[in-house]
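Q: Could you fold this chain for me?
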Amino acid sequence: MPHADDNVDIVWNRLSESRMTPYLVKANGDRRDALAMYEWSTRMAATAFEDVGHLEVLLRNALDSCLRAHFDEDGRGIPWFLMPIPGGDFADQVQNVRERLREQGKETRDQIVAGLTFGFWSGFLRDPYQELWRPCLRRAFPNAPGRREEVFAVLDGVRQFRNRIAHHDSMLGIDIPSESRRIFTAARYIDHDVADWLERRSRVLEVYAERPITIVAAAAAAEGAGGVAERYRASAARVGRGVREATGRLVRRLGGS
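A: Sure. Below is the predicted structure, expressed as structure tokens.
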């Protein structure tokens, strides 16, 4: 929330009217409430980006390891990303990273791998790389469904969410819990243990729960009282079912009928 001493109008003018308009609409014209929404949105984005960053490192390391082995990089002495690859059309991307690193005196193999984008890595799950899926790429996702298209759909969803965060887009109207689950799903395709670690240390749902009441109220109003009531009934049913199942297990364990 804005501090009591904050000059909301000065901050508002520096952030620009066009950027703040969506928040102002949600806040029914109240600039202080709108600024509170904006502050939450940026905090939400930063928190989610932590999880995306961990997934990005996990993804690139998994794919790099598989591609390195498949193209016998160690035996040939040439990085796989400098070899001709079926379906590959990424020479310009690699060259751009190399030139940037060369100017900084940091052009090493590992720095090049680290400098390639999330879209570069998730792009290996696109149609042109179907020939590489079974002999190579699927090995990076030992816990995934068998179809390349399913893995790509999850990763591309994460990529789109990542790009919204990177461009400082508003988090209003985004189903944050759903986006968070997709990140964990992608991580679990690669490694169950690392995915568990990522889910345990994630702060996304904690920050999501801190969203200003004006956001919650706006969402409820948009959905309508019927939708809210239906969600409540469904939640209550799940809780009740869980209690009944737990009670049943306890009775069986104690030797009851």
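A (continued): Residues 225-257 have pLDDT under 50 and may be disordered.
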